[in-house]
Structure formats: C-alpha cells, structure tokens
User: What shape does this take?
Amino acid sequence: MPRLPKISVVGTGSTGAALCLALSRLGYPVASLVNRTGAPAKQLARKVGCRRVSTSPADVAGETDILIIAVPDDAIAGVASDIARTASLRWKHLFAFHLSGARTSDELAPLRKKGALVASVHPIQTFPASSPVQKRAGLFRGIWFGTEGEQKAAERAGELTGRLGGRQLIVRKEHKTLYHVASVFASNYFVVLLNAIHELAISAEMYVSWTELFGPLMTASMEHALRDGPADALTGPVVRGDLVTIDRHLAELTRRMPHLLPIYAMCGIEVARIRKQNGRIGQAEYDKILSAFRQRIVQQPKRHR
Assistant: This one.
C-alpha cells in the first residue's frame, strides 16, 4: 500500500484539530502542528503521534505534502506570507488549502507563487468547541465541502474529502461570498429563529419544553420545505392575508418583547415577497401586508435609556 501524504496543520482550534484527527485516523502521518499558543497543539500532538509542535509558522515540517491552514479568516494571508518567507518546503510538491468559507484561494497567493497548489476547502458543518475532539472528528463523513481553486488543486481536494467520506461542491471564485452567506443563514440565522421560539415559549409561560412542544411542527415544516420547496411549505397569517392577526402579533411584541419585533417583521415581509414571487398573491395584497408591518414598526414608541 502506497504511503499516504504527510500533513501539517497551522491552527489547532475546533475545526483544525477535528480535521487533523480525522485524517490521522485514516492513516495520514502528521508531520507538524503549529498554533499561536502551544498547549492546544501539544494536546493534539499526543493524540495523533506528532513530534513537531511549534508556535511559529516557520517551523512547518519540510517534508509536508499537504498543508492545512485553519486560522481565523483575517489571519490567513499573513500566515501564508510567513510560511512562504520562512519555511523550507518542497513547494512544487505541496498542496496547501485553508478552511475559510468566506475567503478564496487568493489568500494563499504567496504559496502559489512558490509553486504550491492552493485551494480553499470549506467543510459545510459546525464543529462546536464544547464537543470532544474525538466526536468532532467524526462529523466530516457525509457532508459537503465547498471547494474553490484551480482544477488540479480541486482534484487534490476532492481526493482528500472523498477519503473523509465527504462530497465536493465546486464553488466559483466570484460566488464565494454568496456561498458563505447561504452557509451563515443555514447555521447562525437559523439558530437565531430557534432562540426566538425559545424566548417566546418562556415569556408565554408554557410549562412544556419548547423543543417538545414545537419540535413536531418544526420537523414537519422542514420536511415539507425539503421535499416540495420552501414556497410550498409556508403557512400562517401572512400566507392567509390575515392582517388582523398580524397586527395583534406586532402589537403584543411591541408591548412585551420589542427586541423580537424586527425579526418577526422581516420574516413576515419575506414570506409575502415569496408568495408574490410565486404568483400566490398580487401586488395590491402584497402592498397591504407590507404597509401593516411598516406602520407598526414606525409607530413603535422610542425607548429611552
């Protein structure tokens, strides 16, 4: 069996550590680990059998075949410059990628100039730091990886993500920001809506757990949207054009939970836009719904500090 490429990881935070451990489990030798603070890298090194640990990008092992840069977005370009300037690597044989969903492979331009293949490879998954790294390492199987880069780099990325049990989505460079916006909606903003449900359940003094109470409704709505499309899954007062109920909702939120008013209004307006876009309501009905939301928001009493 041929020897698997040696990997080095710069940035051993939540995602970087999980990916390193997942690849180590597949038999990829870990040549070096670099982290701004040494303790997390040392802990990971013991798990993956790595003997070279450092806080400096200059110490990336020279025999590295695959370089994974798992640092915050704003630090990627600087780390790439440091490595290109100080590390002694076999540039023509190096495949380097970062894990950012927002930034493109251009962040690794200094490594590309040296002759390395470069890409951005973003796992479409969340890796909560509160979970043990052993559990996080298992989250790559079955997920998609948004990959951007030149063809040869994308092919190398596809081989690696395939070994992890994942699937590859090729993202065009000009679409990378929109791709990341979609990822943010799918993770953080979706969770914001769940938190709104949680807060409303508490405020309404519901004695049943909000997850137990609304879980079946959320599950059915999600299954409907995934099966038939989001537009067909929409229900509720905006869909029915029930302006009286909408105004009651807005009035109660204004009185008791004004911080949720913008979210409710924004989502309601978007429901109306989707219905109009799909020919379910006309312009006149859409304007009435829009006016109802706008009037209530404009009429909010100013809150003094």
Remarks:
- The chain has two domains: 7-171, 180-298.
- The mean pLDDT is 93.
- The two ends are 69 Å apart (CA to CA).
